[in-house]
Amino acid sequence: MKIYFIRIILFLFIWVLLSFISCNKDNECTPCIMESANIQSVVTYTDSLVWFQDSIGYYTDLGTLSIVTPPVVHNGIVQVYLRNDSISDRWYNLPWSIPYSGTFIIYNYSYSLDGVRIGVFRLDGIPIDNPGIKAFKLVTTSL
Description:
40% strand, alpha+beta, four-stranded antiparallel sheet, 2 domains, 143 residues, 9 strands, Elongation Factor Tu (Ef-tu), domain 3
């Protein structure tokens, strides 16, 4: 019975503490997400002509997209999603690994003010085929 009483007191203490943290002195609760965040997205497509082979796999540069701005690069977030085929509505967030013949094919990305680079390679180092037609969704968030 004593443990049950202690749990109730602890629960009430945490509830009161969280209530004071989430509200300002005018009793206006602050939202969980920042209202000033700027979120943008764009979908871009690749084909076999824009993939270039290097020593470990293939890469493509999506170029200087208008949503990858200095505020995003310096203080924001860039997220990249892949739609692996044209008939699916499922988007996979990168980095993403696909099981393939006892190993994995890895999709990864990097970004800078010069644009977004997508890389794909096999984990065991064996050369892969050109990735071909893919859809990529880029989502940027800046403050």
